[in-house]
Amino acid sequence: MVVPESKDKLFHPPDDLQRDAHVPDFNSYLEIYRKSLEDPEAFWKEVADEFYWKKPATGPMLQYNFDITKGNIYIKCMEGAKTNMCYNVLDRHVKDRNLGEKVAFHWEGNSPEHHLTITYQQLLSRVCRCANVLKKMGVKKGDRVSIYLPMIPELIYTMLACARIGAVHSIVFAGFSSESLCERIMDAQSSVLVTADGVYRGEKLINLKQISDDALEKCGEKAPCSVTKCLVVNHHAVRTKGGTSCNKLQTPWDMKRDMWWDEAMADSPEECEPEWLDAEDPLFILYTSGSTGKPKGVLHTTAGYLLYTSLTFKYVFDHHHDDVYWCTADVGWITGHSYITYGPLANGATSVLFEGVPVYPHIGRFWEIIEKYRVTKFYTAPTAIRMLMKYGQEPLQKFDLSTLRILGTVGEPINPEAWQWYHEVVGQGRCPVVDTFWQTETGGHVLTPLPAATPLKPGSATFPFFGVEPTILNEHGEELEGEAEGYLVFRRPWPGIMRTVYKSQERFESTYFRKFPGFYVTGDGCRRDKDGYYWITGRIDDMLNVSGHLMSTAEVEAALAQHPAVSEAAVVSRPHKVKGECLHCFVTLKDTKEFNQKLVEELKKQVRDRIGPIATPDFIQNAPALPKTRSGKIMRRVLRQIARNETDLGDLSTLADPKVVEVLFSQRSEAA
Ligand code: PRX
């Protein structure tokens, strides 16, 4: 790799950012990257030296087998070391770094009237109290605790309390149904569930305790439910619209099993000695969807995850002591685990923790929060950007966004139009956009720009992070050099990679290591361009093969989204007699636009012009909305089935709004 000089338009890092950046230019990136691969032992040792180890490691920084033909897959980091995650992200700052008074979180409620400030010292005391409550409930090292909470401080307290006592947290996003919660509790066999009475998401009141009770009842249908105690945060009653509205919520109660958070915490001591864990002791399980439909319990462990989330946070957001960082993800997803809780806290950062939604009580809420807390680093998802783009520039102009220095995206490929808008309108042209590619499984960023070092190309996650060695394979497992497109795989582990699928080493190995022995297979397609930039083209299972030509859904979608009438697009394949597969495109139009034959022709031309005649869509369907998971991901499986007119849709429990599917089916025949 050399410093990119490209025919494509490059967005270079601004000078003022480079001046005091951790990695100030591309050559420095290359140099550190080279060292991280040539001598990973020295590289990761230096990172580990920042942290507290009760006992030093006796084994190497990384030990592994990535080759299934040579035996079981394993990854171990710092064998023999003893430490505690919670101690490293809290006590270390309070006791050794004098950061007790520093704000850890600005909590902003669903309603702008509700907000709290939590310092590192306060966070430590509350976490210790919660840890003592969990212990009193019988939770011991290695036990699983399921957490079904909205974006409130108690969510952070509980996860860190688990980490403190060596319990394994399993957070279930609080938008999931009772079935999904039940499935995850049963798989983890948790002994305690922590939830809340209820929460407002925008205008909508959600009775979390009722959903939790339904889930526990379902768990108990076949065998006794593993959960014997349920801790309930009085959130709705205390911290929502207040007054009489809380009467609207009936909180079901089991006197033997349930306990109010406030009562339990009231007489709980503020001191709690951390449990000193082995480096490879589990930290958490997080469920992610799998191709078979049954969610996989991705398991992350202690030392490696600490090193990796901490280092990626520091470099990818170029963290400095006076930053105010805001990641809009929910802690129920990996982005929240790594880049709201562990990564930022490991760095002693100040973050915003936001409970609400981007458009409540008004469409400028995100921008209002940036102004209110003087946010310097902002991390969100392309889907949020596209949604906010629909309202144009006006809502942003009412707020002062001049504190912003770095913008980030995660979760899906960002189409160039959304990238440009983010860069120009939100970042006012002066903030680099770090497009971070990673997965629940990778624990942290694996392909990403570094904001002061990497010249950007809109839509590219650019280059690997330190210690990460990507390569691209073809269908036969042959490595492709230079400009190429194929399967994105990694040749060796980094400390933060998952260790196994909970209770299913077999599924771990078959999902990620069997297809191409010697490599971790991401399941994503990827292109390397002539300058060495990596471009994620979407999941391999979303690859389309039209007349023998491989293309990605993402590139067709990007082409459609560039049409001024289109707000969002999703493309799937459907069988075609001559071509094998052809494209069926779902397009959501901007507010005032009309779907008609003329527009259909324009869109087909747009794709043809952008990619080539081979990509010309056969069908374009109006989609007033797209079926999405609660985290905002488009469910292409469902779209594929609609396009193919397959009415047996299987499990739709992860859909945010199931009605969308009916509407799309009813309008299917109008696809032109
Ligand atoms: O397809 C990739 C996409 O999201 C997948 C991982 O999803 P999940 O485990 O839910 O984690 C999401 C948050 C890390 C990947 O396999 N993805 C994630 N980030 C990007 C992305 N696709 C393109 N560009 C990204 N920056």
Describe the structure.
By secondary structure, the protein is α/β, with parallel strands linked by helices. The chain is globular, with a radius of gyration of 24 Å. Bound molecules: adenosine-5'-monophosphate-propyl ester. The site of adenosine-5'-monophosphate-propyl ester has 19 residues, from helix 12, strand 20, strand 25 and strand 26. Residues 29-89 form the Acetyl-coenzyme A synthetase N-terminal domain.
Q: Keywords, please?
A:
alpha/beta; single chain; 31 strands; 22% strand; 672 residues; 7-stranded mixed sheet; 32% helix; AMP binding; binds adenosine-5'-monophosphate-propyl ester; AMP-bd_C; Ac_CoA_lig; globular
Lay out the secondary structure.
Elements: H1 15-19, H2 26-38, H3 40-48, E1 63-65, E2 74-76, E3 82-83, H4 85-96, E4 103-108, E5 115-119, H5 120-136, E6 144-148, H6 153-165, E7 168-171, H7 178-188, E8 192-196, E9 199-201, E10 204-206, H8 208-219, E11 229-233, H9 235-239, E12 258-260, H10 261-266, E13 277-278, E14 282-288, E15 296-301, H11 302-316, E16 324-327, H12 334-346, E17 350-354, H13 365-373, E18 377-380, H14 382-389, H15 394-397, E19 406-410, H16 416-426, E20 433-436, E21 470-473, E22 479-480, E23 484-490, E24 500-501, H17 505-512, E25 520-528, E26 534-539, E27 543-546, E28 549-552, H18 553-561, E29 566-576, E30 580-589, H19 597-611, E31 619-622, H20 636-643, H21 659-667
Parallel strand pairs: 4-17, 6-7, 6-8, 7-14, 8-11, 11-12, 16-17, 16-18, 18-19, 19-20, 30-31
Antiparallel strand pairs: 1-2, 3-13, 4-5, 9-10, 14-15, 15-24, 21-22, 21-23, 23-25, 25-26, 27-28, 29-30
The structure holds adenosine-5'-monophosphate-propyl ester.
